[in-house]
Amino acid sequence: MSSFENLRIVDNFYQTSLFFPMPTVIISTLCEDGSTTLGRYSLVQPYYVAGKDYYAMLLCCRNSSNTAQNILRNGKCALNFIDDSRTSFKEAVKLSWPGDKPSDKMPKCQFLLEKSLIEEETGEQRPQVLTDAIEAIECTWMRELDGADRDHPGELNGYEPPYHDFNGITSKFGAHFILRRRVVK
Ligand SMILES: Cc1cc2nc3c(=O)[nH]c(=O)nc-3n(C[C@H](O)[C@H](O)[C@H](O)COP(=O)(O)O)c2cc1C
What we know:
Elements: H1 13-16, E1 25-30, E2 36-41, E3 44-48, E4 56-62, H2 66-74, E5 76-81, H3 86-93, H4 102-105, E6 113-114, H5 117-122, E7 129-130, E8 135-141, E9 168-169, E10 174-183
Antiparallel strand pairs: 1-2, 1-5, 3-4, 4-10, 5-8, 6-7, 8-10, 9-10
Flavin mononucleotide binds next to strand 2, strand 4 and helix 2.
């Protein structure tokens, strides 16, 4: 007889029904007005890990989030890995409310931000990075994959099909982004 119990799978199955360790990553993206906004994400993982001459990460997210909309618009983000101190987590919670606009949450945010290394080296406008991050990965969305260069921001109530298989808008409310990486700290 099995020693396991059959679990009923509920929403957010990876959080509620699985033992699945996930990082806490604060993603910075560039808004239309050139300011940086921050969102909290866990579904971030290595994507290309071997056999390429570069590395890439994968982000799974709601396609109406500020983060997704900004990536669709300009393709730029930084994945900031934070520590597990109470202070950092209290700040992270403030960045996790769906529907909060950058103008709602950024004035209250206490994370310190600094200029991107890529911006410093090249002059290209990039989202700022978190000064207190243990490590930050500055990334550019590979919009050329899977025909995703046809995806655009602006649909906040769900995208209509057809959907991509693995990059860009992948369902009515979902998106996957393959992010070419460069570690900066
Ligand atoms: C611990 C934690 C992890 C989260 N991870 C994700 C994630 O991986 N993908 C996602 O779409 N939303 C995730 N969320 C929800 C986002 O934080 C939320 O949608 C937030 O509004 C995103 O901010 P933005 O709209 O400024 O991008 C997470 C929330 C919490 C509390």
